[in-house]
Amino acid sequence: MLLAACDPAQPDATGDTTSQLADDGYLEMVSTGVMEPVQTEGVSAVSFVPDTSTAWAGLVAVAPTEGGIDLFNADGESVHRMTGPRLWGLATAPGFQLRGEALPLLFGADRNTNLVRAFALLRDGPELIEAPIQPIGPQGDIASVCALGEGIGYVDLVVLSRGTSVEIWRVADDGGDLIGAERRARFDLPSPARSCVASDGAIYAASPAGGIFRFDEEGNVTAQIDGYASALAAGDFLGRPVLILSDGNSETLNVRDGTTLSPIGNVIVRDGFSIPGVDRPGALAATEASFGGASYQSGLVAIADEEDGRVRLVARETFARGITNVD
Fold it and tell me: How many other CB atoms are there within 10 angstroms of residue 201's CB atom?
């Protein structure tokens, strides 16, 4: 487990105290939302599918450990369950277009077929259907996938192998019968990685052998620390790049500077108003996209609880203020 000390947090100018230092020295935050329970043994990955035209219609995508993908709205209601293979990693391309029409895509690593599977989101349902895509598979057995970035007409994915290799693939509509996929780069990390996340061009990966890496699209490692994490989330929080880690066993999240990987602090997510906290953080995701309402207009952080398999939400603004106060 990665640990870091915190300085006491102070209320902001408005007197906000939603984040404060616990008696044991960890930073406390509170849940602002929770996904309703479904029949699941646990969560292997979580991601966001925002809707830029109607913020409150954005979705939270969850990959249960037994397979498939569950979709929830921002109120925590289950709106669709797709049965299917177990997926490691969950990447989304909310703005993807096929033949000029909006067609959000979700991607997951299927270790049984050793390929990245693609699923198209039909928002009117909502409903997920498998998308016809050219094969995406790394040299060696696949480990996970994450989204690197989305542009006009394409999305770039980071694909991890179970060895040390990392590949970057570009998915785009090239007019063919299948959605196009082309490998843009391949390089090796100092040790094998099993999970990854990207933010503002920086890629982060966690190794089961111990080690967290920050590297660029050419494979240059720009920061590295010892330690173990099973899930990662990253983003800009009040102008500062931040990396959030969980190990799937402890009761805290470890928060680090996204550039240097130096510690910021450890976070415990407590019960909110009639909303359960997080006992054992697992899969993670963060988004800057608005999901509507006063709490969610600046984005969200999603945290799966290994104890009950349900995903909690923390308003991004609350999370940002909390980690800013301790540094």
Answer: 9
Cα separation, 61 vs 266, in Å, equals: 26
> CB within 8 A of 294, min separation 6: which ones?
none
Q: Which long-range contacts (CB under 8 A, 24 or more apart) does 98-101 make?
A: 98/173, 98/179, 99/173
HEC string for 5-24 = CCCCCCCCCCCCCCCEECCC
3-class SS at 56?
Answer: helix
Which phi and psi angles does 314 have, rounded to 5°?
-125, 130
Whether this model's pTM surpasses 0.70: yes
Q: Taking the alpha carbons of 118, 122, 128, 130 in that order, is the dihedral positive or negative?
A: negative
How far apart (Å, rounded) are the C-alpha atoms in residues 314 and 318?
7
Tokens for 33, please give them: 């939302």
Q: Are 180 and 155 in contact (CB under 8 A)?
A: no
Structure token pair of residue 53: 């035209």
**Tens digits of per-residue pLDDT, 177-219?**
999 999 999 999 999 999 999 999 999 999 988 799 999 999 9
CA distances from 118 to 10, 68, 139 (A): 45, 12, 19
Distance CA 186, CA 53 (A): 36
Which secondary-structure segment (H or E) carries 170?
strand 165-172
pLDDT tens, 72-119?
999 999 999 999 999 999 999 999 998 888 899 999 999 999 999 999
Residue with tokens 């800009």: 236
